[in-house]
Design goal:
- This protein has about 110 residues and is an alpha/beta fold.
- The protein has one domain: Rhodanese-like domain (Oxidized Rhodanese, domain 1).
- Helices cover about 35% and strands about 20% of the residues.
- The chain is built from 5 helices and 5 strands.
- The protein is globular and about 35 Å long.
- About 25% of the residues are buried.
Protein backbone atom coordinates (compact mmCIF):
# COMPACT_ATOMS: atom_id res chain seq x y z
CA UNK A 1 0.00 0.00 0.00
CA UNK A 2 1.27 3.43 -0.93
CA UNK A 3 1.97 5.91 1.85
CA UNK A 4 0.65 9.42 1.44
CA UNK A 5 1.76 12.80 2.72
CA UNK A 6 -0.14 16.09 2.82
CA UNK A 7 1.25 19.23 1.23
CA UNK A 8 1.70 20.84 4.64
CA UNK A 9 3.54 17.81 6.04
CA UNK A 10 5.83 17.73 3.00
CA UNK A 11 6.51 21.45 3.28
CA UNK A 12 7.53 21.05 6.92
CA UNK A 13 9.77 18.07 6.20
CA UNK A 14 11.47 19.74 3.24
CA UNK A 15 12.15 22.81 5.37
CA UNK A 16 13.76 20.68 8.07
CA UNK A 17 16.78 18.44 8.08
CA UNK A 18 14.83 15.62 6.46
CA UNK A 19 14.60 17.43 3.11
CA UNK A 20 17.82 15.82 1.90
CA UNK A 21 16.27 12.38 2.34
CA UNK A 22 13.67 12.97 -0.40
CA UNK A 23 13.53 12.96 -4.17
CA UNK A 24 10.51 14.78 -5.58
CA UNK A 25 9.20 13.14 -8.75
CA UNK A 26 6.71 15.20 -10.76
CA UNK A 27 4.84 12.97 -13.23
CA UNK A 28 2.77 15.68 -14.93
CA UNK A 29 3.01 16.56 -18.61
CA UNK A 30 5.22 19.35 -19.92
CA UNK A 31 2.40 21.84 -20.38
CA UNK A 32 1.46 21.42 -16.72
CA UNK A 33 5.05 21.95 -15.61
CA UNK A 34 5.07 25.18 -17.61
CA UNK A 35 2.25 26.45 -15.36
CA UNK A 36 3.84 25.54 -12.05
CA UNK A 37 6.32 23.20 -10.41
CA UNK A 38 8.30 22.85 -7.24
CA UNK A 39 12.04 23.55 -7.28
CA UNK A 40 14.48 20.67 -7.47
CA UNK A 41 12.02 18.10 -8.81
CA UNK A 42 12.80 15.29 -11.17
CA UNK A 43 10.29 15.64 -14.00
CA UNK A 44 9.29 12.41 -15.70
CA UNK A 45 5.87 12.33 -17.39
CA UNK A 46 3.78 9.39 -16.18
CA UNK A 47 3.98 7.47 -19.46
CA UNK A 48 7.81 7.65 -19.42
CA UNK A 49 8.26 6.22 -15.92
CA UNK A 50 8.85 2.59 -17.02
CA UNK A 51 11.64 3.61 -19.40
CA UNK A 52 13.24 6.12 -17.03
CA UNK A 53 13.06 4.39 -13.63
CA UNK A 54 16.88 4.28 -13.48
CA UNK A 55 16.83 8.06 -12.93
CA UNK A 56 15.10 7.55 -9.58
CA UNK A 57 16.87 7.06 -6.29
CA UNK A 58 16.58 3.74 -4.51
CA UNK A 59 18.11 5.30 -1.38
CA UNK A 60 15.86 8.34 -0.88
CA UNK A 61 12.14 8.54 -0.18
CA UNK A 62 10.43 9.19 -3.52
CA UNK A 63 7.58 11.68 -3.32
CA UNK A 64 5.35 11.31 -6.38
CA UNK A 65 3.54 14.47 -7.48
CA UNK A 66 0.87 15.28 -10.07
CA UNK A 67 -2.03 17.73 -10.36
CA UNK A 68 -4.51 16.22 -7.88
CA UNK A 69 -2.76 13.04 -6.70
CA UNK A 70 -4.39 10.35 -8.88
CA UNK A 71 -1.69 9.90 -11.54
CA UNK A 72 1.07 10.10 -8.97
CA UNK A 73 -0.69 7.43 -6.91
CA UNK A 74 -0.67 5.14 -9.96
CA UNK A 75 3.03 5.83 -10.49
CA UNK A 76 3.76 5.20 -6.80
CA UNK A 77 1.95 1.86 -6.97
CA UNK A 78 3.88 0.95 -10.14
CA UNK A 79 7.20 1.82 -8.48
CA UNK A 80 6.35 -0.28 -5.42
CA UNK A 81 5.57 -3.22 -7.69
CA UNK A 82 8.90 -2.74 -9.44
CA UNK A 83 11.29 -2.88 -6.52
CA UNK A 84 11.17 0.61 -5.02
CA UNK A 85 10.32 0.41 -1.33
CA UNK A 86 10.49 4.08 -0.32
CA UNK A 87 7.57 5.62 -2.18
CA UNK A 88 5.03 8.22 -1.02
CA UNK A 89 2.23 10.03 -2.85
CA UNK A 90 1.55 13.74 -2.40
CA UNK A 91 -2.11 13.73 -1.38
CA UNK A 92 -3.99 16.32 -3.42
CA UNK A 93 -0.98 17.02 -5.64
CA UNK A 94 0.11 20.45 -6.78
CA UNK A 95 -3.44 21.72 -6.39
CA UNK A 96 -3.26 21.04 -2.65
CA UNK A 97 0.24 22.55 -2.45
CA UNK A 98 -0.98 25.75 -4.16
CA UNK A 99 -4.01 26.00 -1.88
CA UNK A 100 -2.36 25.22 1.47
CA UNK A 101 1.38 25.91 1.24
CA UNK A 102 2.14 28.47 -1.48
CA UNK A 103 -0.78 30.53 -2.77
CA UNK A 104 1.53 32.23 -5.30
CA UNK A 105 1.52 29.03 -7.36
CA UNK A 106 -0.94 29.10 -10.24
CA UNK A 107 -4.05 26.95 -10.02
CA UNK A 108 -5.28 25.23 -13.16
Amino acid sequence: MVQSITAMQLSEQLAGDQGADYQLVDVRDGWELDICKLPEVVTIPMQQIPARMKELSTEKQLICICHHGARSLQVAEFLLQNGFDKVTNLDGGMDSWARTVDQSIALY
